Amino acid sequence: MASKTKTGSKDSADKGKKKAPAAAPVKDKRANFIRLAQGRANAAVKAIQLIGNLSNTNDYEFKDSDLVKILDPIKEELNATAARFDAAKRKIARQQIRLED
Question: Which end of the chain is more exposed for a tag (fewer CB within 10 A), N or C?
Answer without folding.
Answer: C
